């Protein structure tokens, strides 16, 4: 709308400096008796059948960092198909040395028989339990007690390989959970790799090189990475005190009190083993010095064959699944809104997730910037509704009602009533608390209505006047770039309470109440678009520096609106006259209002807000008058001179201008001003 053109000149300049976020203020606690929702797509669909249908997705993992082991792709099998915005979903997770990119793509349906399903469950439970517990002492009992079809969380996460161009389940790795020494001996008795002595007996060397092993003497679990051919039991081991002894002597002395005999074969090589530890995704799992050299005679094989890269890839699964779970909840919440919304709006799922993620989660995104914008939007919508519903209430009563409706206490109660707290992510992800598929004790999502119904009530004018007899309608319409359907709104917006005429029973305060919320929302939205990713603290500072009486008042004086204010106060007349004089003498014309050392009369800022309200009402409460799209600026640099082209499309017409300058920002400002000038000349409202 045209009123924004008057205000926009006084918005804070483009040069911004990031500052620390504002300190969090105390907020009303959530109701303790609130559920924690879990995505229905990941919950059991009933008893397992002889042939179970799954929908499987390929999770392509790409590590954007250097590490000694590559990651492998993973298959996700679900009992119901995901409702996703796109055919594929991209997730980027941060780690110490860079990022891990996960591209998830739907492959198709797959049917597994009951034996295959149980095998897959055994594999993932074994892998995750070892990863979580770092011990193997309870693993056998857990796997023996595994029953089919009774898990609350019902999905499969499996290693993947490629058969030609088609991704497939790596059944060889999945079958590693079935390892036994008897089978290992039978399957490899004719293998030429040779046999080696382990804690529990002889085993083919090809099976222990890539396996999950435990050392019963200390309860540790390791993933093997092959043999160290240059080391054997008689090789020297350097100790921390500078002394040396053979591996055979070291292990024999260390475990003598535990009655462990190191009966090493002198010809055997040592295994290169990596310790198993639970790690948060945001810290690189295991450092390169986490390898230990172990004699095979101390190792008991648990799973084989399984590579260290496969095991390493699965360390990221809890964090990947946590993000997928969050996205699914955000999708459910979005669907709940859209099902009851008056119009369909394309809302990115990541934005919904951002809106339900607090700063405590330590993610790269959180809700505070959206909270700032949402606060402004609620003020805008509530003020609009109150203005329409209570047409005989003055501004004071409307403000009281508004403050009560959008108070934190009221909003908190509303959110709890709608079970919104069940969607909120309010603590950092801890893999130790991740629910391994097969666990229980969760809440399934139960859709509830959550909508806001703003009815379009016709604004009944309190008076009809001949506006042309009181104000210069044509000049003001040209200045505001808006032709009024009801010009009496223009009179109301410019009428001060001291102007007492029987044909004008009201003043501008009701329109000011409405206009204040409109400008607050539009300017906040402007900064969100202009500075994507802006910190909440800086967004608040920019808005406060722009949405204030001095900025608005300066806009009114610059555009000479003060001449058209209808009032009957001698004091107000003197105050405005003094302000205008000060404005001319102190070159305030070239400032932004908030730089002024003195306050302006409140009425000057009020009329800017009341005029915004008048235009909004005259437009039928439609804030979007003209459609325009600013395209990405074209930037080039030649011999130290920047050339920038700014291009805007408005209602099918393209406005563009190219400016050059030695400074990129200056070239952009010059080009932007020319385009804005062209838009104004073409009578377009921004």
From TrEMBL:
The keyword Nucleotidyltransferase does not apply. Pfam families: PAZ, Ribonuclease_3. Residues 194-303 form the PAZ domain. Coiled coil: none annotated. Residues 354-415, 473-620 form the RNase III domain. Keywords: Hydrolase, Nucleotide-binding. Its cofactor is Mg(2+). InterPro entries: PAZ_dom, RNase_III_dom, RNase_III_sf. It comes from the Eukaryota. SMART domains: RIBOc (SM00535). Transmembrane segments: none annotated. This is Uncharacterized protein. The lineage of its organism: Eukaryota, Viridiplantae, Streptophyta, Embryophyta, Tracheophyta.
